Amino acid sequence: MTIDRDAAQRHTIAVLTASQALGGLGIAIGIAVASVLAKDVSGKESLAGLAQTFQVLGTAVASYVLARVMGVKGRRIGLALGYLIGAAGAMLCVLGGAIESFPILLLGTFCLGTVTAANLQSRYAAADLARPEHRARAISIVVWATTIGAVLGPNLTGASGDLAEKLDLPRLTGPFLISFFAVLIAMAVVGLLLRPDPLLLARELEGVSAMVPPGTSWSRVATVMRERPPVVAGVLALSSAQAIMVAIMIMTPLHMDHGGASLNVIGLVVSGHILGMFAFSPFVGVLADSVGRVQVMVVGGLLLAVSLYLCGSSPTGESWQITLGLFILGLGWSFCTVAGSALLVEATPIEARTDVQGAADLIMNLTAATAGALAGVVVDGWGFGALNSLAAVLLVGVVAAVLLSREKPHVPESGEDRVKQP
Asked: Do 247 and 332 form a contact (C-beta atoms < 8 A)?
């Protein structure tokens, strides 16, 4: 049987679009209430940010672990495993809220982070078979797919709360019930339909052995980063944007709750933020392919700076500043993430691709987890405005990424377009 590269790529994008939408729903529906639930269960406002922080930590660990699995078994097995662990995490969140156990809640959010890790790795899967001139566009389509579930999710918080109360569960555990079912379906979609595996097929097309190359994973990552500055640039752009986004996003519901904003209003604001993150990514991808990765990262840094000013000047409760600021925060993240991801993929040789991608997402999410952990302390001590001012320091990472990405990355030959299958 003959497999056509472009046909396989179209099928891969279709499957990843479906799973990404479901995974986005599973994650986003809990984001709007995670910090409030953590505050209620722990009884301490200073610990409110830990739920999202543990989710980011789970994403960091899972990003590396899933990438290692994919390096040996391919994208399909790695993504399905991520969604399975994430579904278990959603049920642990329900249990933690029901019995008011803060450790169980944190364990649940940690495991739920594997859904985000799987979604992040999906953008790399979208690039495995993509033509070089369409690489950013392929990444952006899968990133965009998250919009479907991510915007819908926070708007279901009210209805999911009603469902939880009918089941004699705390209202704030309702979103995690919806998350459980959405993520399980995402696992089934990937596990059954992601054939042929895009990474394994790409390796075959480029004549690269599917066996793990010699040396340790980290030694391969260190070699690539030392020899290819654009890879470092991609990691810096991804990490800076993610840390800024997480630090502000996880504390916004609490900032609004202080001013008496309702759960539905908070959900709408978070939906607007997620719309900014994902809805315009196809445009960002086309822009990155046409005008360049560096230019798109510059725009992303400027958008992040504007968002921090607006969010930092917003009063508690409902306000146009927090609504617009959170939307622009998501848009700036999208510009940096699409451009940074494309830069990372094209500058990395295929034999080290999963190692570098896993390490990049690990670094990105550890940076974000640190920012998230400090966010609650900063807001508790100095306020939401101070948090935005301190987050602006992280824009230095975007500037450094722009400077490092000036060196043209090495792009491997694409290989043959067709391979014979037994």
From this structure: no
